[in-house]
Amino acid sequence: GLSQYSSDPRTEWDLSAYSTRDQVLEAMRNLRYKGGNTFTGLALTHVLEKNLKPDAGARLGAEKLVILLTDGKSQDDANLAAQTLKNLGIDIFAIGVKNADEAELKQVASEPLELTVYNVLDFPLLSSLIGRLTRVLCTRIKEKSNKENAGSTVKDIPVNTGPQLSPTDLKISAVTSKSMHLTWSPPLRPPKKYRIVYYPSKGGTPKEVVLDGAVSSLRLSNLTSHTEYLVSVFPIYDTAVGDGLRGVTSTLPLSSPRSLRVSELSHNSMRLSWKAAQGATQYLVLCSAAPDGAED
């Protein structure tokens, strides 16, 4: 299975989509690169929430491996999401290219790091990793399978978290040109933390807030006026991620000055007056001569 991510993760194909090597290689050749931001934490949550479930082709008896390929430092908390996967027995291999943060790769990856962390200077050099990475992955699967057969416990990834682990009823209120207020109903089992991600629907830098699991409301501020925002609320547990809540709303436009009046006219001056615009800290006044008149 493969997912791409920037600010919004996108599943390219599920684990059950292809059954032969040639089909996978053909899908790779047709893949379109997704540019944008680097929200690695959100991407890892997406993989657990969407890609490692039975209805996406994940087999309960199979070992779970995630290979993270990134060329930049994460703009959100990748470590928290990675720890959730690792607590479930999912192995993470981290591969950095160009500007990837090696310290972050080591935080995200599973132990032992000398087998799970790789870093190359440019994309063509990824080919040099194929042989070693293939051997390491196959050996890792065999080792884990042998442990399982010897009787060690394996944690199942929750198939359907439902109300037990997932918040409900997201409400967005008190919307202004610069802010909005979020509230939601917590799940039956309170999470360790919430991750709230919000960004303009037409593009822009996503932002993230991490809250304690006992809190179920948040005021978002310093927003852009007259802009549609996508909002997601993810509950994070030690060994699971509940289904995310999602909402969309638009901030209000900035208020305008009203009732423009002109007075005290002379041969080279005039006085302007208007009713103030709420929240304005300055005004820009543009004066233009009539067509064919003097310069502005």
Automatic annotation (TrEMBL):
It comes from the Eukaryota. The keyword Secreted applies. It is found in: Secreted, Extracellular space, Extracellular matrix. InterPro entries: ECM_Assembly_Org, FN3_dom, FN3_sf, Ig-like_fold, VWF_A, vWFA_dom_sf. Residues 1-133 form the VWFA domain. Its main location: secreted. This is COKA1 protein. It comes from Ciccaba nigrolineata.
